[in-house]
Amino acid sequence: MEKKANYVARVVGRLDNRYYLIEVHNRLYVIDYFNPKDIRNYLWRFNAYNNTEYLIYDVTEQVEQYEVKPFNIWLENFRKVFDIVSIALVFWLLFFPPKFANNPMIFSSWRIVLILFFIGALLIFLVLNLGMDKTLKFNFQDALLLRATIKENKKGSNSSFFKVIQHLITFILLFSGCLFIGIFNSNYLTLLLFTFIGGYSILFIYAISIQYNLNRFKFHIIKNKQEA
Fold it and tell me: In the chain, which stretches have pLDDT less than 70?
């Protein structure tokens, strides 16, 4: 079997909330990273080994025709700091919640809290979709496949159907856990960290974590899906 050439993918810039410009092996590609209209991107995108394939378009010779916005590296640094700080805060608020922030009305008002949460989620969803550039058009026939190189023992042996069910169950448990831990503790700080920050992170953090996710793997490029 021919050994695949593995490359690092580096983000160069952003076209809109869906498409980014990346560099792979000294060539420039537009990557179809996150489609805000696709509900599946919000359900199980946080799984490390679920996001291993992306459609890309070689634009090395035509890159000047695109309006490339600077890539905000601070978002990647925020993601790293956020992960570390969140772990510390989780232990602190679960085991030593500050009493000054306690309010039993939080638990009794759980319906209002959930309504406010989903209103906020809807607003974020709308912002992501409003940030789409409708002038961007790519021919699917010209698409290449950027596929992560993963060792066989990490791929697992489950079928695609059972993987989807597994990821969906994991999402439901994590998402509902974040929502209700914050509410049941009847503490404003716990509510903020778990219900709102935790809940929104599970839904939306993938959208701003492209370099963080690409750094997980090395990739090889496939000319068409029939060769995959």
Answer: 1-4, 44-50, 73-80, 82, 151-160, 224-228
Mean pLDDT of the chain: 84
In contact, 31 and 56? CB cutoff 8 Å? yes
The pLDDT value given to residue 1: 43
Q: How many Å apart are CA 191 and CA 85, to the nearest integer?
A: 16
Q: Encoding tokens for residue 197? A: 């920050």
Alpha-carbon gap, residue 144 to 146, rounded angstroms: 7
Query: What percentage of residues in the chain have a pLDDT greater than 90?
Result: 42
How long is the chain?
Answer: 228
Phi, psi (rounded to 5 degrees) for 42: -100, -10
Residue whose structure tokens are 């035509």:
62
Residues 6+ apart with CB under 8 A from 13: 20, 21, 68, 69, 70, 71
Quote the DSSP letter at residue 56.
E
- Region for residue 130 given its phi and psi (left: phi exceeds 0; alpha: psi -120 to 50; beta: otherwise): alpha
Per DSSP, 96 falls in state S
- Alpha-carbon Rg for the chain, nearest whole angstrom, is 20
